[in-house]
Amino acid sequence: MSSTHCNVVVLIGGNGSNLQALIDKQSPHYTLAGVISHRPEAYGLERAKNANIPTTVVSHQAYHSRSDFEAALVQALDNYQPDLIVLAGFMRILSPDFVKRYPGKILNIHPSLLPKYKGLNTHQRVLDAKDQEHGVSIHFVTEELDGGPLVAQVKIPVLLNETVESLTQRIHHVEHGLYPTVVEWYGQQRLKCQGNTVTLDQERLKKEGRELTLIDMQGMVS
Ligand code: GRF
């Protein structure tokens, strides 16, 4: 990464609303160099095209093995020369070999307060457990699924009569503020990850990452 330029490649598989939030941010500190989808029908591809961002489809269904799929993914990624890979609705598990190629360079957003509720159906699991709070986490990706070091979390209260639908909507709203904020830190070279150590402005982050509120993010992203 040169001192002024950070090439970001976004990996998607669906609607791409987080991609849209990154597009809308229009930061001078990073360029959205490409979008790769593992599903050809992902609506996020349209969003990228509308923003004149190059796209590539690497359909997981076109490959017989995970290693063949990942070899194609590596080739597609390397064409865009990524400084940072942003997972945003990319629904494939990445192998340790893949992750090791890009140490400290892959971010993921997950709709729970990790380490709680790794994996899928997080909103339903929060409701089933009658939790009083829920939230969003961003972490660097390591070989452990949803287990890499945390960068930031935002908590929201679980309201009375909350449903999976209402939580989905409220969590998305948080995600759309949080992801651009964290990618901006990386683009500004303030955020770094070495092994399991994450630093922001040279200060080592605590286990939960930086705790932010929606109000913090409005200040930072505007
Ligand atoms: C987000 O809720 C994110 O937390 C999860 O996948 C969803 C992607 O949504 N990893 P979108 O495609 O960005 O709208």
Q: Can you walk through the features of this model?
A:
By secondary structure, the protein is α/β, with parallel strands linked by helices. The protein has helices at 17-25, 44-50, 66-79, 96-101, 122-128, 164-187, 214-221; strands at 7-12, 31-37, 55-57, 84-87, 106-110, 133-140, 150-157, 191-194, 197-200, 203-204, 210-212. An eight-stranded mixed sheet has the order 3-2-1-4-5-6-7-11, with helices on both faces. Helix 1 (17-25) links the parallel strand 1 (7-12) and strand 2. The longest helix is centred in the last third of the chain and has 24 residues, at 164-187. The structure holds 5-O-phosphono-beta-D-ribofuranosylamine. 5-O-phosphono-beta-D-ribofuranosylamine binds next to helix 1 and strand 5.
Termini separation (Å)? 25 Å
Q: How would you write the strand order of the largest sheet? A: 3-2-1-4-5-6-7-11
Q: State the oligomer.
A: single chain
- Count the DSSP helices: 7
Question: How much beta, percentage-wise?
Answer: 15-25%
Radius of gyration: 17 Å
